[in-house]
Amino acid sequence: MSNETMTEVDDIEDDRGAPCIAAAIEALLLLTDEPMSVMALAEAIKCPSDEVWQTVRELAQQYTEQGRGFDLREVAGGWRFYTRADCAPLVERWVLDGQQARLTQASLETLAVIAYRQPVSRGRISAIRGVNVDGVIRTLMSRGLIAEGGDHGESGSILYVTTSHFLERLGIASLDDLPPISEHLPDLADLDEVLDSVATGD
Description:
Elements: H1 3-16, H2 21-31, H3 38-45, H4 49-65, E1 70-75, E2 78-83, H5 88-98, H6 105-117, E3 120-121, H7 122-129, H8 134-142, E4 146-151, E5 158-162, H9 164-170, H10 188-200
Antiparallel strand pairs: 1-2, 3-5, 4-5
């Protein structure tokens, strides 16, 4: 390969922001919480849609042939990672065991933001906390403390709200019974004590 050709390849990779199309697709699909269409992927990666389509299909086949713990499925007009069905017993056991675990500080902070700002988008929660909250959101949803509450009309972002189970665990009748706040959210140490019953089910 000539120096000129190598330079052209390097320029393409720099423009794409990833070492190859497959890596770019994997990075984007790991970040999104909704299926991404081939066109959306192609636009983000700056690559022809037919190349993206071929790469996505090859990745899905590779994951299956390698017996990975996840697979790549085409659903609702887009592509998304899912836990492989063969791993369902393990995932179910881990989720159920997690119900007995104490909520982490990150979970408590995120839950407090949702409780006082609902309905609120994942992006807004991340902005308030200053960190990615994808994993925490999944944890809170698996425990039944929060749920999807529609979407933002303009952006289409999913909005999150607390559930009746959240009220039950706090021992309050409605959100109006939450402690009042002024400039800051309530002391998370106090919230930790109140929500400790979530872990034990008492």
